[in-house]
Amino acid sequence: MYRIYIFIMLFVSSLISGQKEIHDLLIYEDEKDSLFLAEHLCWGNPAGDSILARQGYVLSYNNELRIPGWVAYHIKPGYIKFKPARKGRFSRFRTDKHPYIKNPVSDKEYKGLNKTDGFARGHLAPYAVMGGDRDNDSLFASEDKSVTDKDDELTIFEANYMSNIAPQYHNTFNGAGGMWYKLEQWAQKKIVLEFDSELWVYAGALFLNGGEIIKTGKKGDIAVPDHFYKMLILRNPESGRPEPLLFLFPHYSEKEQYKGKTIFDHIISVNEFEELTDFDFFDFLPDEIEEKIESEKIQGVWKERIK
To answer: Which tens digit of pLDDT belongs to each residue from 181-228?
Structure first.
């Protein structure tokens, strides 16, 4: 699918009056990638990483650990409402053949891991938000091949690229009732659909425990993160500024370890997150605005949505 790739510096136009331009490093294929980057990464590249642009998300991939480092994606209500069922060709997990992905993971490497190690194929950019008419031609990806839109099909296929997958404990974290599952459901159904909101998301894998990294997979070389995070961003309707809500989850293997906790018990401030990592969010904002945004755990428009 991808024919060439080179590194370029891309200048993304500001969405906020007076904001300086954001510089992001893109592994470039063609001019369409700049559109995907502007949509999904409009709030900046917090780690200064090299980026793969996809139609439904952008991706920073760790070739050594064989998992995505982080993804960023934009959700509109239509992206959730208008998508085909996850079955048939839309359920297939696919090897990412982009030349930047070295030693790409295949679906076969995860076969049987749920039974042996308890791991599921955990999406960082979820399948559920990959629908919609992305190319504005009034056609959609459809289970009916006679009327399907090939461009919008690609968006959904890319959700199931194995480069978008990290091992997650199924019973405690990824599956129904798990923390990751609960947060995705709340963000999609409550924030995007019920409040009819556009949402920007950063989601990623972390290694914060400092010990030896657990490895899994048929070859025993796919890293298992000890934490996952997800930052949800709404745009303040009055100021146009981003308002983040950041969740940091330990990746526990036992349900008892989450006992008595809800997703909201895992909210931390952006400042707290940045102290744990090398990330620097919202560095394009004036210092006083950046500090206000990053110091408060729950702010502005989020207060009326967390009830």
So the answer is: 999 999 999 999 999 999 999 999 999 999 999 999 999 999 999 999
Residue closest to 232 by CA, chosen among 263, 275, 203 = 203
Provide the whole-model pTM. 0.91
Rounded CA-CA distance 247/231 in Å is 6
DSSP the chain: -----EEEEEEEPPSSTTPPPEEEEEEE-STHHHHHHHHHSTT--TT---EEE-SS-EEEEETTTTEEEEEEEEE-HHHHHS---S-GGGS--B----TTSSS---GGGGTTHHHHT-EEEEESS-GGG--S-TTSSS----SSTTT--HHHHHHHHHHTBGGGEEEEEIIIIISTTSHHHHHHHIIIIIIIIITT--EEEEEEEE--S-SPPPEETTTT-EE--SEEEEEEEEE-TTT--EEEEEEEEE--SSGGGGTT--GGGGEE-HHHHHHHSS--TTTTS-HHHHHHHHH-SS-GGGTTT--
Question: Percentage of residues in the chain with pLDDT exceeding 90?
Answer: 86
Closest among 3, 38, 10, 21 to 284, alpha carbons compared? 21
Question: Up-side HSE of residue 37: CA atoms within 13 Å toward CB?
Answer: 27
Sign of CA dihedral 271, 267, 186, 236: negative
